Amino acid sequence: MTVTQVLVIAGAFIVAGIAKGAIGMGLPPIALALMSFAVPLGDALALMVVPSMATNVWQAIYGTGFLRLLRRFWTMAATSVAALMFVAVGFGHLGSPMAMTWVGVILVVYSTMALTAWRPSVSRTTERWANPLIGLASGAVAGVTGVAAVPFLPYMQSLDIDRHDLVQALGIMFLFIIGALTLALALQGAFDATNLVGAILAIVPTFTGVWLGQRARQAVSAETFRRIFLIGMFAVGLHMARGLL
């Protein structure tokens, strides 16, 4: 691994950590998008899963609603894991060059949706059948790209849920999704010695970024941070999706 790659990777996790600390989400897509300038997607995914899992463990258990939220979203968690493993193992495109292009498409679609004022509303009754369907779709997308941003994140933000519960629920769901992604990558042999050591070392810049994001959140509104990162994700997504042009 070259010095340039190390610097890009460290910078990617600091920036992604800042987003995580400031708005509670965005670490995987931001880290993958920025690392794509220096390393292949397969290596970027392997580097991303350990620091992402570490941050989501705390996000999932912090609060009083873990079991209540797990009961509410267990069907989504189960179907997302099943779909991710089926697509990743069955089709074998996870981390491929074409998958990098589709990561870009996902970033463009998600950031465009999130930047608009339109917000759908999903009732608790609708959740009974929508949760497993969203889990299937999100898991299938993640099984190719390694990113579960669409339709998972827009859907979660459309629910009738307290904002504190939303942050904890996102942490819980990402534990399942990143856990399944880690297993799929391991079955593909993505974790060589370099990637494994790099993933562990990436925890340091990630939590540095989280700390900076939490500090910055006190000075600048979370909504301002959210818009800044969404605009950045849109620009990087366009760069990554250029292969479709």
Descriptive key words:
245 residues, 11 helices
Integer average pLDDT: 88
**Strands, total number:** 0
**Could you say which overall geometry the principal axes of the C-alpha atoms support?**
globular
Biggest β-sheet, characterized?
Answer: none
Q: Give, in order, the helices and strands.
A: HHHHHHHHHHH
Distance between the termini: 30 Å
Walk me through this protein's architecture.
- It is a single chain.
- With 245 residues, this protein is an all-alpha fold.
- The chain has one domain (3-244).
- 79% of the residues lie in helices and 0% in strands.
- The chain has 11 helices and no strands.
- It has helices at 3-23, 27-35, 41-61, 66-91, 97-115, 124-145, 152-156, 163-187, 193-201, 203-219, 222-240.
Summarize the structure in short.
The chain is mainly α and 245 residues long.
Write the topology of this structure.
Layout: H1 3-23, H2 27-35, H3 41-61, H4 66-91, H5 97-115, H6 124-145, H7 152-156, H8 163-187, H9 193-201, H10 203-219, H11 222-240
